[in-house]
Amino acid sequence: MTSTSWKTFLSKQLKTNIEQQGLSSTYTSLATVRADGTPANRTVVFRGFAGEDHHSETGWQSELLTMTSAKRSRKMADIAHQPIVEVNWFMGGTQEQFRIHGKCYAVQSNTTAQDLKELEGAVTKINNVKNSSDNQNLATRAFLTRLGDKNNNNTLDWQAERLRQWYRMHDKLRGTFPSSTNDSEPLEIHDMDDQGWFVNHDKEKQRLLEEGYENFALLVIKVECIDHVELNSGAHSIFKQDENGQWIYKKLTSSL
How many Å separate Cα 135 from the centre of its chain? Predict the structure, then answer.
């Protein structure tokens, strides 16, 4: 393989695995460090790259991995203590492993632009998108509505992105986020208002939606290095940044 964008390569391999094995290929493991210095690991779901949607044009692109979490999750405390994390992603269809090292940022209801200043420049605005497009899904329409005039800026509104990811979540999973109920009933989003805010026509479910959203966090990983192993052949390589911040690709000695 010649030097190439790790994002292009990772996306291509993920697409192949989804075609072979379904959406379970988006499951990966996120490793963190607890406050006492011991390791913690759990299965999470890759939610795509920040600002991007597979089926709807948002006008943004990035190389930032996204995942989601409830604020009450123990991994949130781990990340607050030590934001350096590692993702171990085994893709069974193509029999390869990606170990992705980087820094994790948690976008919560009280997160400010200043808290995410290190991500400036990591998301790129690529064009202006009109909110009236029939091809846009509800998540993208809400995202663009929340941006409003700010969509002309070159800095992503991370609260608008957090809201977009809330829209994209499955109804059943969304229902696990409110803390005032143990029922975990599906929470549907029926529509949005003229501010891009989610709407359920049932008053109680609307309350639970808003409570759940308060407990919802978006995890954003800025990648620093990727270690890649092809398990069938043992081929081993890495993607990393040089001293100028340019990505380079390097083959290593074959190793499992």
Answer: 22
**Cα angle value 80/83/85 (rounded, 5°):** 130
> 91 phi and psi, to 5 degrees?
-110, 105
- Encoding tokens for residue 39? 């390791």
Q: Is the pTM of this model over 0.85?
A: yes
Q: Please list, in sequence order, all residues whose beta carbon lies within 8 angstroms of the beta carbon of residue 158, skipping any fewer than 6 positions away.
A: 107, 111, 113, 116, 119, 218, 220
3-state class (DSSP) for residue 68: strand
CA–CA separation, 237 and 244 (whole Å): 20
CA dihedral angle for residue 145, residue 147, residue 153, residue 156, rounded to 10 degrees:
-130
Residue 49 is classified by DSSP as: B
- For 111-151, the pLDDT digits (tens) are 999 999 999 889 999 988 876 655 689 999 999 999 987 76
Residue 206's Cβ-count burial label (10 Å; 0-12, 13-18, 19+) is: middle
For the chain, where are the alpha helices, taking DSSP H only?
6-21, 74-81, 138-147, 158-168, 171-174, 203-214
Contacts of residue 210, defined as CB under 8 A and 6 or more positions apart, other chains included, come to: none
